[in-house]
Design a protein that fits this description.
The complex is a heterodimer of chains A (262) and B (92). By secondary structure, chain A is mainly α. Chain A is built from seven helices and no strands. The chains are: A mainly alpha (262), B alpha+beta (92).
């Protein structure tokens, strides 16, 4: 488990060891850019998860409201359905929350690593200038060796941390993309969208249904025995119009051809 | 000696601690070699905790290579096994 630090091969390739300093410094600046990009990538993924969680939570809130409404109307079956869908959403939200916290931790770690690398790159730059100004090519060799292998180890470490975070982020993005796709395709709406509409339609029917029923009863009561036939056909047409206004299932049951929503 | 915990940075640890750390390292190495998930995580945590307790963080301007490099705290068994066989890293 205890590893020896990797020797820097770049040193052997350079004719003048002082060139190594500039080469290495260049690599360090590139690495810093890469690390900052890594931090930004993780932050982007985190924000995307945040948006998805907010969307799911909002839908959950709606389902909760519908469950209350359904219970208030004495429709325990509908309330049960709404609560069931809410529970399904909850498991998705919990999953996203886990991913979110993991990304948040990665982001913090990478931010610290990036600051540490930046401090070391700055230290390297100063040592580099000192070495170039003070030593001849022959003298520089030993001075450079330690600084270069020290900083390249740091870069290796930070590079590995970025790689790990990016691998994890890529997996999460694939899953987040799947949720986005599900939302777009409507498959997830089986849980959140149309089902809500189904529930809403029945709740609406509960509200408007009795009105239509009362209306029908009133009309039926007004209709006397003798003229009944002629007028009844007219009243039925009115009832049908009311049904299409209110999407009432009760009216639809009376007049299947008028219940356009069925 | 200088010890790096990947993802955390370098620490200066007294050479006299080498024996104690080697024992903890041996336990970790055994867990990895045996593929034992149950003992791997506690062994890794024990080793890193001890290094953190014994060591003092190296200053940023000290650009020195480490004598020992240890896996990150959140590494899993497969990652550590991969680190051991990777080119350039020689098991101690």
């Amino acid at each position: 488990m205890i590893f020896k630090a990797k020797a820097n091969k770049a040193l052997d390739r350079m004719e003048d060891p002082r060139e190594t300093l500039d080469y290495s410094y260049q690599r360090q600046l590139e690495m810093l850019t890469q690390v900052r990009r890594g931090v930004a990538d993780v932050a982007t993924s985190r924000k995307r998860l945040e948006l998805q969680m907010n969307t799911l939570r909002k839908q959950q809130g709606k389902l909760d409201g519908q469950a209350r409404q359904a219970l208030g109307a004495g429709r325990e079956d509908l309330a049960r359905e709404a609560l069931g869908r809410k529970a399904t959403l909850q498991s998705q939200i919990s999953d996203l929350e886990g991913q979110y916290h993991s990304l948040q931790a990665d982001e913090e770690k990478l931010t610290v690593a990036s600051q540490r690398l930046q401090a070391r790159v700055e230290a390297f730059r100063m040592q580099k200038e000192t070495i170039k100004a003070t030593y001849t090519a022959a003298e520089a060799q030993s001075k450079i060796g330690e600084a270069v292998s020290g900083i390249s180890e740091e870069m290796g470490d930070v590079g590995m941390a970025v790689q790990r975070a990016q691998d994890k982020t890529a997996q999460m993005q694939a899953r987040a993309g799947a949720i986005d796709e599900l939302m777009a395709s409507g498959a997830l709406e089986d849980v959140t969208g149309p089902p809500r509409d189904d529930i809403q339609a029945e709740l609406d029917a509960l509200r408007t249904g009795p009105d239509i029923e009362r209306e029908l009863q009133r009309l039926k009561g007004e209709i006397g025995g003798g003229q009944a036939r002629e007028i009844e056909s007219g009243a039925a047409a009115d009832g049908g119009a009311a049904a299409s206004d209110g999407a009432g299932h009760a009216a639809a049951a009376e007049q299947p051809q008028a219940g356009d929503g069925a | 000696m200088i010890v790096r915990i990947l993802g955390e940075g370098q620490l200066q640890v007294e050479d006299s601690a080498a024996g104690e750390l080697n024992a903890l390292d041996a336990a970790l190495e055994k867990a990895v070699n045996e593929g034992d998930e149950g003992t791997f995580q506690p062994a890794l945590t024990a080793l890193l905790d001890r290094v953190r307790a014994l060591g003092t963080p190296l200053a940023a301007e000290a650009l020195k290579p480490s004598d020992l490099i240890l896996p990150p705290a959140d590494a899993d068994l497969a990652e550590v096994a991969a680190l051991l066989t990777e080119d350039g890293h020689i098991p101690g």
